[in-house]
Amino acid sequence: SKPVILAIVGSLRRESYNRQLALAAQKAVGDRADFRLLDYADIPYMNQDIEFPAPEAIARVRAEIKSADGIWFFTPEYNHFFPGVLKNLLDWLSRPVSKDEPQVLAGKPAAISGITPSMAGTALAQDHLVTLISFLNMKIMNIPRLTIPNAQQQLNQAGALELAASAPYLQKQADAFLKFIDSNK
Ligand code: FNR
After folding, report:
1. Shortest-distance Cα residue to atom 27 of ligand 1
2. ipTM (interface predicted TM)
3. pLDDT for res 123
C-alpha cells in the first residue's frame, strides 16, 4: 500500500511560503503517497504539569506521527533558527507517551526543506533542526535537502508561490524521499 508522508510546516501563518511549499511538494509526490499536512496550531506549550495524561491535541498529533511512514519538515528561519512553534511541537514529541510507550519520532525517515524571502535559504535553521531531530533518533535524509532563497522572485501575479526555478529540485527531493522511505522499511 502507499506510504503516508506527513508534512510538518514550521509556520502558522495563513499565507506561509513554507505551507505553500508543502502543498507544492504534495503535487510533486502525486499519487505515489498519501500526503498529509499536520495541523498543530492548537497544541499547548510544553508544561510538565499537564504532560500526563497527554492533552487531546497532543494525543491526536502523536497518532498522526505514528501512522506516518515519513515526516517532511518545511521550516522557515527565525533569527537563524527554526521557529519556536516547531520547537514546542518537537519538545512534546520527544517525550515518552507513557511508562510503557516510547516517544513516537525515533526511527522515522525525515526530509527537510525551507523557503525564505532572504538570501540564505533557511540553511542555518535546517542545521539546527538536524541537530534536534538527530538527537531524537529520526532517520534524516541529508541529501538532498532543499533551501530556497529569494521567495519573492518565485511568486505569480497574484502573489502565490509558483516555484518556477525551484520546481525541478523539489521534484528531485520528492523522488529521493519516496526511495528513502522505501529503503527504510
Ligand atoms: C524572520 N525572517 C527571517 N528570514 C531569514 O531568512 N532568516 C532569519 O533569520 C529570519 N528571522 C526572522 C525572525 C522572525 C521573528 C520573523 C517573524 C521572520 C523572515 C522570514 O523568513 C519570513 O517572514 C518568512 O516569510 C517566514 O516563513 P513563512 O511564514 O512565509 O513560511
Report:
1. 76
2. 0.99
3. 98
Average pLDDT over residues 23-35: 98
Distances (CA, A) of 2 to 54, 92, 173: 30, 28, 18
Cβ–ligand 1 contact at 113 (below 6 Å):
no
Nearest to 166 by CA among 176, 153, 157: 153
Phi, psi (5° rounding) for residue 64?
-65, -40
- Calculate the alpha carbon distances from 148 to 49, 57, 90, 164 in Å: 39, 31, 23, 12
Backbone angles phi, psi at 73, to 5 degrees: -90, 140
Q: Residues 68-98: pLDDT tens digits?
A: 999 999 999 999 999 999 999 999 999 999 9
Kindly report the protein residue whose alpha carbon is nearest to atom 13 of ligand 1: 78
- Residue with CA nearest ligand 1 atom 24: 116
Return the domain boundaries, the chain.
4-183
Residue 154 per-residue DSSP state: G
pTM of the model: 0.98
The architecture of the domain spanning 4-183 is 3-Layer(aba) Sandwich (3.40)
Do you know the residue count of the chain? 185
Check pocket membership of 17 for ligand 1, CB cut-off 6 A.
yes
108-113: average pLDDT: 98
